[in-house]
Structures are given as C-alpha cells and as structure tokens.
Amino acid sequence: MEIALITNVKFFISLGILLFAFIYLIQKRYFYFNFRILTIMILFGLIAIHSLLFSYKPDYSLEYSLKALYIIFCIILVTSLFKNEKLFLYHKYIIETLSIILIFSSFFLLVWKPAFAYRQGHFQGIFDNPNQLALYISVIIIPYFLNKIYLLKDSSKLSKLILFGSIFILVLSASRTGVAVTIIIWLILLIKSKRIFTFKKIVIAIILSVIIFLSSDLIMGFVKKNNQSDSSLLSTRTMLYDLRFKAIEEKPYLGWGYHVNEFSYFDKYHDFPKFEKGNTYLALIEEFGFFFASIIIIFFMRTYYLSLKLTDNIYYVSLILMAAIIHSNAETWIFIMHGNTSILFWTTLIIIFRASTDINYFKEQRQKIE
Description:
Blueprint: H1 2-27, H2 35-54, H3 58-79, H4 84-112, E1 118-119, E2 122-123, H5 130-151, H6 157-173, H7 176-192, H8 199-215, H9 220-229, H10 233-250, H11 280-310, H12 315-327, H13 340-355, H14 359-369
Antiparallel strand pairs: 1-2
Helix pairs in contact: 1-3, 2-3, 2-11, 3-13, 4-6, 4-13, 5-6, 5-7, 5-12, 7-12, 10-11
C-alpha cells in the first residue's frame, strides 16, 4: 500500500511539472511542435500511465517511463530552438563529432589494452558491452559515412578513416547482428543509388566480403563465439524468444510492464545486457500486452514509414532508419531511453517531424545531390 501511494504521488507530481513546463514554453513560444511530434509525447505518456496502472513492478516501470518522457520532452525543446535548415546541419555535426571521438578513443584503447575495454575477449571500447558498441557503429556511423563517401562523393581521408575504422572495430566486437546490418545497408545503398549501382561492384563486394570472412584473423572472434556455445545467431536469439513467449503466455492482455524482465537468460557463453530480450516487437507484447503493444507497433511502423517517405531525399537519414528497423529484429534498444543510440534515434525522428511542415526543405536537399 505504501509503495502504491509513493508511486501515485511520484507520477502525478512529475506529470504536473511536465505539463506546467509544456504549457509555459508554448505560451512563451519557446516550444514548437506539430501533430506528429505531439503523438510521440502522447505515446510515451501512455507508457507512463500503463506503468502506473498495470506494471508488475510499478515503481520500477514508472521510473524508467518518466525518464523516457523527460528525454523526449527535452529533445523536442532543444530542436525547437533552431530553424529547419540548421537542424540537420547540427545533426550531422553531432554524428561526425561522436564518430571521431568513438573511433580515436577505440584505437587508443586497442593500443593500451585495458581490461575494461574487453568482455569475454571481445572489444567493447568505452561502451558497457560489445553489442552496444556494434549497435552504435552499425546503425549510426556506418550508414552515415557510407552515404557520405559513396553518394555524396566525399573523398576526404578522415571520412574514409572513420568508415573503415568503424568496420574494423565492428569486427573486433564480434557482433554478428552488427555485421549483418552493415552488409544489408551497404547493399541497399548500392541498389538504391543508381549513380553508384553496377552489377560489377556488387559482385566484387560479395567476393571481397567472402575472402575477408574466410581468411582474416579478426573474424576468429565470430568463429570462437559460435564454436564455444555450439550455436548460431538465430539459435542464440531463439533462447530469448522462448522466454518471450512464456512471458506473453502468462500475461497476454496487460503485459508485465515497461522494462520489466522477469524471464532472463544467462549462460557462460552469452552475457546478455539486463534489458535484452532478443526482438523489439516480442518485447513490446511482453511488456504491454497484445492490445497496447499493437497500438505501439502500428504507431512505430507508421512513424518509420512516414520518416522514410519524408527523408527519401536525405539518404543518410533514411539509411539510419533502415539500419535501426533491421537491427530491432535482433535486439531491444529502441524503446530503452538510457542509451546514446536510442536517444539519437528518437532525436532523428523528432528532427524529421520538426522539419516535415516545410516540404520545400526536403526538395532543396534533393537538388543538392542531383
């Protein structure tokens, strides 16, 4: 009873502060939003309400859902301070700056070789585990610099160093999901862009990939990872999927609650992060039940579709979105709002919707690359 009372008080005080700040900033015209941005806030608001009313661990779920709502609110507020043409410019600066920091810090750690930079023999750099490192590289860095080098014809040595350095570090992380996402995005870019698509290039790319895969010592991390546990990427995820189905079977209608993971999987070969559930969509059904999860999934897929449609002329954004949706089938990071990749992903969506009222802006971007 005491926990429930504390949870209710925490929820209503937090909600009151957020609504007051929201109304105040709108009145002062410091806060810009349109209907699409508003739906994102409503979505995370509903997640907070679900956490209060239906979660198996209401205090736990509410804490994380309110943090997520605050982060979304702050992203919208910050993006409201800039004009449309500046938003994507600063977005690029952020990606490039973070990429430079990550790559050079990783090279430094590879030379220094401190114990904290590795987990079970796999490189994780400044991240908490190798999969988080691979996630950021495969979803953010590689799509951005593939677009910059192949489509925008950027021949600078720094861009090439970051791209190939990222691929090198990705292999050291031994993340099979990250490598798979990278290969798919690379092929999508080759096929999508008529100016760079040739059958010869794809054949060469496939042959080189096979040669590197079979001959490089770097790939031994993948071989070792598979041989130790006698499992493939799919069978590893199957273990997590089985637990998701068990959890859904027990609470199919209302779910267990945001971030609640009562069905964890650990063994000596697989050290999954605390919140990892193997598939974003199964995790949503587990946490929110079929009805609310269906609403979230439909909203997310529609948001994703609209974003791709709007950014068809800004390829680097489209590639990041495609990489994210592919990656979400193997890991559950998109709705976990305390990771830098998920925050940057939602920032990207909000920037797209912030600029969506100015269709001319997207047309201008197309003219720049033609």
